[in-house]
Amino acid sequence: MRDLSAPLRHPVVQRGIRAALAAGVSWQLAVLLPGALSEYAYYAPLGAVIACLPTVADSASVAWRTVLAILLGGGIAVGVHEIARPVPTALTLALVVALGIGVEQWRVLGSNASWVTVAALFTLTLGKPMIPRRTSCPTPGWCCSAA
């Protein structure tokens, strides 16, 4: 009789299962985060899949560097956005890319350094500002909840 578990011993199959489980679990945990943090839940499975390398030791090493790179990129985008709100979007975007590439030179990030700029761009372009909506408009005819 043929051994049905033989395909499960193949490294590619093991990596696929590990990546799929990591992406699913990380997504489920990320959507449970409070408030605005859950709006960026898509970063969790992205980082999980990237972190799944052929060995557990490699995965752990890559995982913390990837998470650090993504957090640094998000921090750069939020920081630049908060400081440079009156600056046009194109200039803000250019500054985020320049800072991201500068931070990518940090050797600790290793081969995952490029995620700094990618995460910064995603955060800046896909992030939504948290603007409270007014329940009543003090000036009739004007929109009070404009972003």
Outline the fold blueprint.
Blueprint lengths: L10 H20 L12 H9 L4 H28 L5 H15 L11 H12 L21
Helix pairs in contact: 1-2, 2-3, 3-4, 3-5, 4-5
Number of strands: 0
Q: What is the number of helical segments per DSSP (H or I, 4+ residues)?
A: 5
Bin the helical content. Answer: 55-70%
Rounded to the nearest angstrom, the radius of gyration is 20 Å
Structural class: mainly alpha
Number of domains: 1
Order of helices and strands: HHHHH
Largest sheet: none
User: Mean pLDDT score, rounded?
Assistant: 80
Describe the structure.
By secondary structure, this protein is mainly α. It has one domain. The protein has helices at 11-30, 43-51, 56-83, 89-103, 115-126. Helix 1 packs antiparallel against helix 2 and helix 3 (56-83) packs antiparallel against helix 4. The longest helix is centred in the middle third of the chain and has 28 residues, at 56-83. The chain is elongated. The termini are far apart.
List descriptors:
147 residues, mainly alpha, 57% helix, elongated, disordered C terminus
Quick synopsis:
The chain has 147 residues and is an all-alpha fold.
